[in-house]
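Appendix B. Chain record.
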Amino acid sequence: MQYCFYSKNSSTQEPIGVVGAPTREEAIRYFSLNKMLSISDFLTIFEVKLYSNGTTESIAENSKQLLKG
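Structure tokens predicted for this chain:
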């Protein structure tokens, strides 16, 4: 699944980043590490949701895949 994050202050909810992750929680973890914020601090500023960009099949060309390991 693809998840995106956006600023809670954004009226357009324009995605800042996109990641492929098995769960929303994994996506949150990835984005918070990427921003070098604790999960709590990250969720104070940003929101994470399923990425659709019009359809659920859309995948951003510049999206990053979450690597397990």
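Further analysis of this model is presented in Appendix C.
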